[in-house]
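Table 4 source record.
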Amino acid sequence: MNLTVAGALAFWAAAWLLNERLVRLDARTEHARRAVALLVPAVFGITLLVVWEGLVRGLGVPTVLLPPPSMIWERLVNSLPTLWADFQQTFLKAVLIGYALGCGSGFLAAIAVDRSPFLKRGLLPLGNFVSALPIIGIAPIMVMWFGFDWPSKAAVVVVMTFFPMLVNTVEGLAASSAIDRDLMRTYAASYWQTLLKLRLPAAAPFIFNALKINSTLALIGAIVAEFFGTPIVGMGFRISTEVGRMNIDMVWAEIAIAALAGSLFYGLVALIERAVTFWHPSIRGG
């Protein structure tokens, strides 16, 4: 075992002991608890990168198989204009537009399903069927229908995000208790008054659960859809092209950008959820 590998393993052991101490730390204030909650994953992530770097360099792993993090970082810094153009094409256009259309239409469809027993019996089983369709089957069809630019990728995102929002919202609308609904009827509340003041607030955790699920599905769907036809820009296009050129460091740079964007998007939705559903026990107990 060479010194590089030994150093990486020693760093891993030290970081492991540090994290063990941190998770057992009795933080007495809220700020201290938040600091520990942030520090533990940060130490764990840094440890993974250091061990990755040490093992790849120490064992002489070919860069076409797995480049070290330092090489990926260098490529990322030197390719910022290309990465930004890809990010704009994939995330700012296909993902955000498809996400908004898919989640919005799924929410409206759930309201219609809630009003119609026929739609509930007919559309929900169809939703489960469509949700099981593979992306690689949908993406080529959308490319033929909407062309090679970002609208076809947004269409894939719409299909992927529509039914999770539909199913979760319908389940959430049924979450209010019978006692609460009876109470609204004693007040002579209309359907829409009951919906706005009782059932939608009760469904909010379900709706945000769908929004968080779709925040990751949307990015995956857009990237995979770009494998099947796209202009010479986009995260999926770059990944498939650079794999063919054996530029694996560029592939990992795109993966890092996608992971960061997806994590921030998910975190933003989670923060909005905490602000909107602050009254819910799952939030008040957090």
